[in-house]
Specification:
It is built from 13 helices and 22 strands. Helices cover about 30% and strands about 25% of the residues. The strands form 4 sheets. The protein has a 7-stranded mixed sheet. A 7-stranded mixed sheet has the order 18-17-16-19-20-22-21, sandwiched between helices. The protein is globular and about 65 Å long.
Length: about 550
């Protein structure tokens, strides 16, 4: 098989990104847009050692029953969604199957996976929309960057965005066109308007944050008037003059209305700044958190420990159902937000600790903390072995594991079973409709200490992402991707440095400098960007 070969192929399944999975002469070929049972001519666009990528050259001969016409003209070019060509029920079943497959292949665990908890109406569900701005002063554009690029795909109406986000975007573009306000040009680091970020609360109130390459905008009064007429409750100017992919800069100036937006979740009130983290799908977040609460089975006299607690949303919700709750989070600003949220909601039986979970939890358990229930919601890379050991020592009555990466969750499930836990049930929740993402809640109970054994594991060897659960990217794969897409040559050392930076390499690199005084070459910025792009392509980082 070579690049540009054309074969007639039939998809027999779906991959981690909802692409069709075909097989040709024993090699898996991933074909975006092809659905199971469909046959189409496929051009090979990239060949790796163990798999390849293809592109449909024509529509399927016979469309699958689950195929539908996408309801967004920007799909699939904008990259925000991966499965608008499928019925919504088909996306839910594909996610359910993905969860079952990961537990079977990675964790070697057979677990009954119930239907995914989906939305009654999976449209206009996102309460936060961030739109890059481009084009020219006389014809400004807003949209999303195409996958693995900074090519702007214009989007006139995003069906996932809560109103009035689309109206606010149109108002901003019309204001720019009227007064010839230059959009930001990334390649030259010139122009003014970089992004529009819209937050919308459950009452429909909207905060519009305009990100600019500078400290001021011309015609600010007219901008405020235009956004107010389009539905903005507040307008904030954010200054970001750095050459960076990060959307928001460090300085804010409120042009109109309050500087924060108040929202409610699970009966609690939260104050949101433009930069504050908050779940983007409030309807499904409440279903997710209710599932966590149901799985926890809290008693009034219980002690709860919420590890990786973020701004404390789960901690505070569950504190109302137990004697005391403790949240652990590595980001100090998130802990400050959690403490303020507790004060705002009059919750006095919750406390929060800033620290890395792998340091704080073992220390607390060694000091005698014995939670009745532990909740963990780790980042995509999953649990650190020290956290697993500490939870085994604590022997909680119940352990509830929330994950946005079922591949690492399945890996950790096997390790937790080794440590004396037993999986009781799992429940997937569709938090990000029309994408491949799925949130999974897993309930475990602690067996007798006789079942507890020590586990020693190299997390780098086991660090599996959804893409890697089917096709692991080797160092040679990453080098080949970088060379093909950027023309750069990168070393294994540089790849290891970037992987470690993104938290997906925990062991010592074999070619690390032997002496603390030795000078080790550091990955240049252009090669770091190219390697990170390759890691995103293979699904190893978000």
């Amino acid at each position: 098989m070579q690049k540009n070969d054309v074969f007639v192929m039939t998809a027999d399944g779906l991959g981690a990104d909802m692409e069709g999975v075909c097989h040709h002469e024993g090699m898996a070929v991933f074909v975006p847009g092809l659905l199971p049972g469909e046959t189409a001519p496929v051009r090979i666009v990239k060949v790796q050692s163990r798999f390849a990528f293809g592109r449909m050259e024509a529509s399927p001969e016979t469309p699958a029953p689950i195929r539908r016409s996408p309801d967004c003209p920007a799909y699939p070019r904008c990259g925000g969604c991966t499965c608008r060509h499928m019925t919504y029920q088909a996306t839910l079943e594909a996610k359910r199957q993905q969860v079952a497959d990961c537990f079977r292949r990675i964790g070697h665990i057979e677990v009954e996976v119930p239907p995914v908890l989906g939305m009654e109406d999976p449209s206009a569900y996102r309460n936060k929309t961030a739109l890059p701005i481009g084009g020219a002063p006389e014809a400004p554009l807003a949209g999303f960057f195409a996958p693995r690029s900074h090519a702007l795909v214009p989007v006139q109406h995003c069906p996932n965005a809560m109103p009035p986000a689309n109206a606010l975007c149109r108002a901003l573009l019309e204001w720019m066109k009227t007064f010839r306000i230059p959009p930001y040009r990334e390649a030259e680091h010139k122009g003014l308007v970089r992004h529009l970020v819209v937050r919308v609360n459950r009452k429909g109130q909207a905060m519009a944050t305009v990100v600019v390459n500078g400290a001021r905008l011309p015609r600010e009064a007219e901008l405020v008037q235009a956004l107010r007429e389009a539905g903005a409750s507040s307008v904030v100017l954010n200054e970001n003059s750095d050459k960076t992919n990060v959307i928001l800069g460090p300085r804010y100036r409120t042009l109109f209305g309050p500087a924060t937006l108040q929202d409610e979740l699970c009966g609690l009130t939260f104050e949101l700044s433009p930069a504050a983290f908050f779940q983007v799908n409030p309807v499904q977040t409440e279903r997710l958190y209710q599932t966590v609460l149901d799985f926890a089975g809290l008693h009034p006299e219980d002690t709860l420990c919420d590890v990786y607690c973020g701004a404390g949303t789960i901690t505070l919700m569950m504190a109302r159902h137990c004697r005391q709750a403790l949240g652990i989070e590595i980001v100090p600003q998130a802990i400050e937000n959690a403490q303020e949220n507790a004060r705002r909601n009059g919750i006095d039986n919750a406390r929060f600790m800033a620290g890395a979970a792998e340091d704080a939890l073992p220390r607390l358990i060694a000091q005698g903390l014995r939670p009745d229930v532990i909740v963990v919601d780790p980042p995509r890379k999953g649990l650190d072995p020290a956290v697993i050991h500490a939870m085994a020592d604590a022997a909680p009555r119940r352990l509830v594991y929330v994950s946005c990466n079922v591949a690492t969750q399945a890996r950790d499930a096997a390790l937790l079973e080794q440590a004396g836990f037993h999986i009781e049930r799992v429940q997937p929740v569709d938090m990000f409709c029309w994408t491949s993402g799925v949130e999974t809640v897993m309930l475990l109970s602690k067996l007798s200490d006789a079942r507890h054994i020590d586990i020693h594991v190299d997390m780098n060897e086991l660090d599996v992402t959804p893409a890697e659960s089917q096709t692991a990217a080797t160092y040679d794969d990453i080098k080949a991707y970088v060379r093909e897409h950027s023309g750069l040559t990168v070393s294994t050392l540089y790849i290891a440095q970037v992987k470690r930076k993104y938290g997906i390499l925990s062991r010592e690199c074999y070619n690390k400098a032997k002496s603390d005084d030795a000078k080790q070459p550091q990955c240049p910025a252009d090669k770091e960007r190219a390697i990170a792009e390759a890691l995103r392509f293979y699904g190893m980082i978000a």
